[in-house]
């Protein structure tokens, strides 16, 4: 007998959870094992043993056949949800930054007209020709009809009212996603975007700042839902080996949205007194694209269809579309072997999420990362950027392009993070940039305070702003929400993301309401607060945040709460000749790398 024939006979492993005619659960086998079972009718196989195995270990063995390449349909599906949810959120973050002057002028005009003190005519005598000319006085100077303080309050209200809407949208997204499904929830989420965009035009037609503010609140609801539904859908439709790249795509489209929001707000585009409302109205474009894409083309999440709805047929159809292959048996098995204790999502409530001992640590990590993202100092750096650029000698008209360039750097660095997320891992891309942010905050604090003594330090401050944005774009920008979606099994995931989103928006609101007061009290020393916080945050990430790179949901969740055991059947092939001399079909299978997909195919063991 040859050396090859002296090797142990190959074994098959398949889990048993449901019974079938021959005792082998065909519906729950991987694609390869399923065909082997059919082939076993032609070859002699005997049951070696029946034993139990940890689900995470079973998934580790299964991952060899779960690795996938990005198909056209998968890319299309991710693009639609990113454009309709991630982009629209970023766009609404960036669109108002450069529109303060035209919107303030709109408020001034409306409230001055309501007070009957606008457009007063001042008679000016031209001494040279004794003619009389009329000059229109600025409404802000017309007997103080609209004071600067009143305008400041109106502007703060306009920007701040967006956040409570986001909190409501984020908190409700999990309930809606569980009740309606991911697909219908995303379609429903786009409806507020239509109203928010339309209200901007209506507000100008009716000269009503109040309608515009209501529109901003409604738009906040849309963005709050979008920021949770996008990572939820992306995580559930994407193969485990591509989750990092596509998960980073969510943050990438947010940065692209911020960039285009700033572009459309430029004075040369829509940033004028007569056109600013159209910059806000452009919000409707991604909403329309997303709504049409999901209504006519994209399926619901296969995991939701199988594990929540129990609709195996629709789950298979969704996988056929996303994977663009009929060989989706291993994907189905990976979902089916996720711990069954979390398959009764109709019973999984927010109170159960909070009270569950097994979920306390992943929930704490998820919420902590949202807090870290908001308290990292990124908003303070962006707030100071205009003053820093001005100190470098830039004019007011040039500053808007400097801010735009900073946004472009944000986009570029997030693009770089996409291919390395699944290679470097989440932990490294969190820790190393956070260490860099600590160093940059130190430099920024020193340079801002010593600039009066050394003017050249103002350029160091400008470089620090760009460097800080780079570090944030690679780490704390894309990772917190992505890890939040990865740490949970199918059951608690929607509720966990809802709570995470609410926490993120809540601390956004806290920063927005308190930062101006802190900045006025501490001035350039404001960054010391964020520096100290970042040191503690980095220590927390090092000791508590796990690595989720290239792991299935079950493997990740098992680090905190191992699922129940699987019963596994190990089979051994008694016909050595069939092993040593595979049929021609198997030789073709090995050469072209394709998998048999029909019942008549004979699988090489």
From TrEMBL:
Residue ranges of the region described as Disordered: 1-50, 580-605
Transmembrane stretches, start-end: 73-93, 153-176, 188-208, 214-234, 246-266, 278-298, 363-386, 398-418, 430-450, 497-519, 525-543
Descriptive protein name: DgyrCDS10579
PROSITE patterns (alphabetical): MFS, SUGAR_TRANSPORT_2
GO molecular function: fructose transmembrane transporter activity
Membrane-topology descriptor: Multi-pass membrane protein
Domain spans labelled Major facilitator superfamily (MFS) profile: 78-549
Compartment(s) of residence: Cell membrane
The keyword NADP appears for this protein: no
GO cellular component, as recorded: plasma membrane
InterPro entries xrefs: GLUT (IPR045263), MFS_dom (IPR020846), MFS_sugar_transport-like (IPR005828), MFS_trans_sf (IPR036259), Sugar/inositol_transpt (IPR003663), Sugar_transporter_CS (IPR005829)
Basic and acidic residues bias: start-end ranges: 1-10
Keyword Transmembrane on entry: yes
Family of this protein: Belongs to the major facilitator superfamily. Sugar transporter (TC 2.A.1.1) family.
Keywords of the record: Cell membrane, Membrane, Transmembrane, Transmembrane helix, Transport
